[in-house]
Amino acid sequence: MTAFHKMDEPDHRNRLDAMVQGVLGTGMDRPDGPEKVTGSATYAHDGQVAGMLHGVMVRATIAKGRLEHIDAQAVEALPGVRAVLHGDRFLRNPAQGTANEAPVQGSRDIAYLGQPVALVVADRFEQARHGAQSVTLRYSEESASVAPDAETAEVPDKKQSSAGDLAAAMDRAAFCVDAVYTTPGHNSAAMEPHAAIAAWEGDLLTVRASCQMLKYNVNELADALGVDPEHVRILSPFVGGGFGSKLGISPETVAAALAARALGQPVAVALSRQQVFEATMRRSETRQHIRLAADAEGRLTGIGHEALVSNLEGEDFSEPVTQATPFLYRGENRLIGHRISRVNRTCAGSVRAPGEAVGVTALEIAMDELATAAGIDPVDLRRRNIPERDPGEDRPFSSHMLRAALDDGAAAFGWENRPQGGARQGDWLAGCGMSSASRVNMIGKSSARVTLHPDGTALVETDMTDIGTGTYAILNQIAAEMLGLPPARVKVRLGDSDLPKSAGSGGSWGASSAGSSVFLACERIRQDIAERCGCDEGTLTLKDGMAIADNRARPLAQVLAGAPLQAEGEIDKGKTSEAVRQATFGAFFAEVAVNAVTGETRLRRMHGSFAAGRILNAKTARSQCLGGMTFGIGMALTEELIHDPRDGHIVNHDLAEYHLPVNADVPQLSVNLLEERDPWANPMQAKGIGELGICGAGACIVNAIHDATGIRVRHLPATLDKLLEGLDRLDDLG
Amino acid sequence: MRSFHYERAADTPDAVAACAAGATIIAGGTNLLDLMKREVVQPERLIDITRLDLRTIESAEGGLSIGALVSNSDLAAHRDVRRDWPVLAQALLSGASGQLRNKATTGGNLLQRTRCYYFQDSAMPCNKREPGSGCHALGGATRLHAILGGSDACIATHPSDMAVAMTMLDASLDIIGKDGASRRLRLRDFYRLPGDTPHIETVLQPGDLIAKVVLPPPAGGRQTYRKVRDRASYAFALVSVAARIELAEGRIADASLAFGGIAPRPWHDPAVDRLLVGEVPSAALFARVADVLLDGAAPQEGNAFKVPLLRRTLTATLNELCREIPQ
């Protein structure tokens, strides 16, 4: 019994607000919290099985060429080593998100330094690691392109667009900005490194892996192995952070499965931190040429946003830098450009809000420049440029909460009474900045099964994952709310590819998609209960395990009479994805102190106000925003993949030298979540909030640095060396 | 796996004998174990000295004697250190994390290896790791690297904060040699510049064991450690300055400075100290000091910013120490 719903029409019924259990939207603790903090939650590499072997991957040490020979014999002679494996089925790089098929395979052709080219399997991990470090590789090396090049970059037709005449608008503009911004590569840097344990029973493969999207990952893995997807099962009950890096199947999972098949024993493969940096996805560095034209009142008449990004040859993904530019602000003359340079660097893929994270950030620095040029308050400049309709596609917005977020954020931060920019305390200069946030909203096809047991407990099952986001909590809350059960009576099973197929975690669509499928299944169960109670579903009240209809309350157990009720819910995107522009919005505000001597920037406080439709769990939603803002701090101030200029390899491939913000970099952050219902999004009227907190976050900090010092940093991160010259000039001014 | 012998020294002669026979000392292991896992270093024999009686901090010769096994945490928290040598406590607390400082020892901190990206990656050429293989930092990523004291063979920096403060304080080491005799060496004479032999980092001889660090009697004036880095905590110094200035009647009566993050060893330039002594503090004086310090600086493209950064940080530090203290 499947309740299928396609989002072809807005759903104005707002059913969830009619429910009375009072669970949804509260800041309920994660049900899985105790397991995680006590260490009993089994992450991929924790599910170790008897007789398991260990594999460690071997990396290519050249940027481009052909692997001519692997000296396997010498390594296989080492104590404990079982085999040195390589071949046509090993992955060159991870699959891109939702690829649904294997990525480029084969150990022979080397496309970047760090590419996995072999697997050493041994009885013990230490033996395998030593084996991997002992392998001698012989190559025929070819000349590599290790840095992005605008001249030779591809210019895909589909990714260019224009309207009106931007050049003319720039000529006529009362105020304009024409500048180039750059952002460096980033790594997801999830706490849990990529790992897999593979075991075969006959033709059946079970893999415990760290994956975000099992529905796709099963097909990617099966395709890589050349087996029937029906024979592949993936278990990812707990995932220690994904941030995009676990969207597609990655090399260690395929390697573990191949090794387990070759050796007839379970094999575990975990990437080292260095391998995570080199062999999983990086965010492409970007070069962004932004042009803004405005009239005398600061109203935009033109926006140009042209991006150069990079990726390996043959990869379809390219950082969608300009994704939010077509709709965030008004302006009739528009130009979007997108070029992709083919480089021999670690594969580029989805990392923490691909597109908007870096694209909105650069655009919002440019908007700050425009505010400065026009002498208009930066918040007010944004208010003046909120479009009535999506200007890129001339269609309505499902909702546009930017103004509300700006107003709420400005009030919460105290924007009107902020300290004077450049105010000096000792060696420290104070400054404040703000920026807008925006992220496109999507859903994907997603299914879940809900079973209401006669004892008044419910089981929610889907292959959806919880990558630290709070899926276990919100699916519980949705079912508890719909079925009128205390959360303790709802159990959620996730992360097993044998369960109904969900959209998975990624693109901020997981909660909306998987949540809607749970909603639909519960709605169907409610209809069954209503039928048994002889009432309409709309008049049925379920609360605390009681079914209340026609002023009569009966325990659910009595209604069910010993037999469970089960339903599957399935949601899919429909015409509402095209008919309207769906997006989430927000606003960031920051106060920084910049050391006038050294150029060190210290964030003093940061606030974000966000609107993402219905908030399903106030605590986990807030945590998502805090995480996004923290990554925004990293993007603004510290994070940068450093590529060697000669071979392109990532030299700072560990957490000592790839500088994520540490506690001392993150001051008090505050988050306001705005009330909103978006009927175009899905029946829950909720939108994705996972990535919104990073989309533009870095800009408020960079803008605050400008407020403090007058120095405009256009090349992130704003490390101290980029401020020294400007500080010299400040010194001279005395 | 790569096997190695592990022994635990029962006493100092035991440890010295093992060292003389080629064993590598392990104490806190916060640096060595990481390097061994990645096969950056491949010792065949480890001698664990953590059971030796080298954990004492005591007054000695008017100064302070610090056992080589005293943890960074204990040393930073020691009452005498905080009172009389606050620069050392500051430097210690600016390094690593609480967990690492609990394990890391005084002797081990002095001997920690460079964070040069290319030294740390055994697939890359590195004269320090593999003599004669070349220096890949030259022409590569050099944010962490030296602007003073480097050579064509190596531009790696020494990463310790503690050692910079101790260099400024003119600490000495008590070293027990393979003959069992103890000798004393100034820390300022302990580290070697890379020259053609960057793999030889100190003057230690086979069989030598650092037993103690001895701080001279507390000197007058004010002292501070200023570390500039890429994030607020848990990052190595881009530049750091340990400084002590003693003022008398408006002039600098005594001065001692040492610098981190800029050279293959904690950097001390006697000419810098000499230039300050006897002078009235002024912007012009500090600019001259910076000129002398940076004379001969040979930055790379990726770390050229360290020249103005060091100049600015030095000036600010001297300004702070020479500022009139409000009574």
From TrEMBL, chain B:
Coiled coil: none annotated. Residues 1-220 form the FAD-binding PCMH-type domain. InterPro entries: CO_DH_flav_C, CO_DH_flav_C_dom_sf, Diverse_Substr_Oxidored, FAD-bd_PCMH, FAD-bd_PCMH-like_sf, FAD-bd_PCMH_sub1, FAD-bd_PCMH_sub2, Mopterin_DH_FAD-bd. Keywords: FAD, Flavoprotein. One of its GO terms (molecular function) is oxidoreductase activity. Gene3D superfamilies: 3.30.465.10, CO dehydrogenase flavoprotein, C-terminal domain, Uridine Diphospho-n-acetylenolpyruvylglucosamine Reductase, domain 2. The keyword Flavoprotein applies. This is Xanthine dehydrogenase family protein subunit M.
